[in-house]
Amino acid sequence: MKGLQDLMRNIDIKPFHVNTEHLVNITHINNPHDFYVRNVKYMHVVLKIENLKRLPPACSVKMDEIVLFDMDTDSSTTRYARGQVRNIEEIVHSVICTLSAIDYGFFVKVPLECIYKCDNLVLVLPPLAYKCRLAHCDKKGDSWGLAIDAFKSYVSTIEHTKMLIQGQIADKLIVKLGKTEKEDLATILSYTSFTRLAGVPDKINGLQPTAAALPINLSGYTLKDRKTNVKLQVTVLSGSSLQDFYVAEINDYKQYIESREKFAKYAIQEPKCEEGTLKKGDNICIKDFLNMYERAIIKEVLDPTKALVFMVDKGQEVPVHYKNMRKMPRQFMDIPVVAIWCSIPENLANKISGMMVYPGRKFYITIKELGHGFNTPNVVDISTF
Fold first, then answer.
1. Does residue 220 belong to any structural domain of this protein?
2. 105 and 75 within one domain
């Protein structure tokens, strides 16, 4: 505990205030009006908690008690997080607790045997995740619909972002996200028609998007040859469930990260896409918040100014305005795509935690049945390190 004692002695946890700017990690998203952020300054605190030495399990817990729980119940290692007990239920011969992860923002059900008493040093820390609402952003119609996926897709392209606090309602901060006015997330989501700008007439907001489940023609891109019954060490890129997630081989992902700056230098030299010229199946590169570029293919044209595109190295769909698109540098077409589409059989998925497909998680997959590009997934088994 000595390292934790030294850390706690020097740390200065300060609350957020209106009209201040911060660099934050977005830790959990429900929708654009309900998501959580954490100041990047406190990442080392979270990592220190995650890597605490194994603790004795709690024999019992009380409502609202702050405890530690293991976020890696499917692994031989432990990764601790702080949770507040929100509900306790007895099911047959076990006790299941609903915890709110106070440094992340999500809720999770955890068996009592995977819950641990919280050391006093950690107990005195205030919650590090803050509930937020995206300013100037409203849903279209009665529900957020595809806007939630669009929000998650944009956020997944950045490690952290600038946040300006514009107000506060009860325990929720009203915030603007993005480095500049041009990269304001509420404006980008509106341009791509998945939300509307609050207080702006409908004729200025975009049209309602539609996203059909269309096949993806990877004409021009190169796919790696895959074989069944070969164990691959992978990291999770994205995913909505154990039946629909994308991974990359760890070495391939490292090379992809290392090559991004080089790719951006070539991409910036390519012609920009023009309004009215977008075509389904076109290979393009798209710009993210960090002025880096991703390889992509147009899956569906939404209107003359925007399209739903598929990022081949991340396995994600994202709506993009034509001003953030360029033609694809030809020399990068021959590099195999990084993302591997995976699905776990339903009878096996019931035995695995859905947290396994959280971005950044690392494990092994063994392909049991080969898929077909990005039209049908590879059926895989999962095993931990």
1. no
2. yes
